[in-house]
Amino acid sequence: MKSERGGIFMKLVVLIFLVLLCTALYVVRHPLLRAFAQAWVTTDPIERSDALVVLSDDNFAGQRAAHAAALYKQGMAPVVVASGRRMRRYAGIAELMQHDLEEHGVPKKSIVLFPQGADSTKEEAESLEPFVRQRGWHRVIIVTSQMHVRRARYIFLRVFPTDIDVRVAGAVDEDFDAEHWWESRRGIKNMFRETFGMLVSIWELRGKRTEHGLAQFLVGVERLSPLYIV
Predict the structure, then answer these.
(1) Alpha helix (H) ranges present in 104-137?
(2) How does strand 51-54 pair with strand 165-171?
(3) What span, in angstroms and rounded, lies between the C-alpha atoms of 155 and 97?
(4) What is the pLDDT of residue 18?
(5) Distance between terminal CA atoms of the chain?
(6) CA triplet 167, 103, 130: central angle to 5 degrees?
(7) How far apart are CA 156 and CA 158, in angstroms?
(8) In terms of Cα–Cα distance, which of 53, 44, 43 is closest to 141?
(9) Is residue 80 a contact partner of residue 54, using CB atoms and an 8 Å limit?
(10) Collapsing DSSP states into helix, strand and coil, what is residue 11?
């Protein structure tokens, strides 16, 4: 009988603990979800480079292009590469990006169109790598959305050769609200896509973890921890 009472008591303690734990998680769910999103939203320290490379699939407001234009006008690079997916034989996202860049003050002569057919950031990096090498560039700034910086950096450091210094600049993205992302279908979709995409990238590039790439990634994690939000 004592053994049975002891077993019932322990089960009751465990049940109470689980209830309290679930209650605590429910109470702090919003700060936890917010902190998870903010850990993705970041950017690299930027230095003057040979070129700015704007990744494809900008948002409706063209905020990647706008951020690249601002960096160009700050003198961070003499050239802006518009990397965009082909949509037709005669035009694609690169041409739309060129329009946005010119609208924000980048002269046409400083814009290099780079139409490509990539279906992912990894494929886009693989397309850009020989292009950057052929140009003889040794330092490039990759411009993407803030929440895409970590994944883009992880990919580019493993695809690009070690003699090319890669920095990733994060542009504000009005399509993603880190403070309330779980309240909209678009926010949930973007967060799921970025998290799942990072896991896929780690798996696909597991054999390309160069010493340089690993060192740079660890430095990036330390430098761009959740405490370093810009």
Answers:
(1) 121-135
(2) unpaired
(3) 22
(4) 75
(5) 62
(6) 35
(7) 5
(8) 53
(9) yes
(10) helix
Angle subtended by helix axes 149-159 and 211-223, to nearest 10: 160
pLDDT in tens, 89-113: 888 999 999 999 999 999 999 999 9
Supply the Cα-derived Rg of the chain in whole angstroms: 22
Written as six digits, the tokens of 1 are 């009988």
Separation CA 140–CA 148 (nearest Å):
17
The average confidence (pLDDT) of the chain is 84
Give 161-209 pLDDT, tens digit per residue: 999 999 999 999 988 888 888 888 888 888 999 999 999 999 999 877 5
The token duo for 166 is: 């890669």
Distances (CA, A) of 42 to 6, 117, 143: 52, 27, 12
Task: Report which DSSP code applies to 202.
Answer: H
Rounded to whole angstroms, the Cα distance separating 10 from 22 reads 18
- Looking at residue 137, the DSSP 8-state letter turns out to be -
DSSP-H helix ranges across the chain = 2-27, 29-38, 63-73, 93-103, 121-135, 149-159, 185-204, 211-223
User: In the numeric block, which tokens belong to residue 185?
Assistant: 């279908």
Q: Report residue 115 as tokens.
A: 């139409």
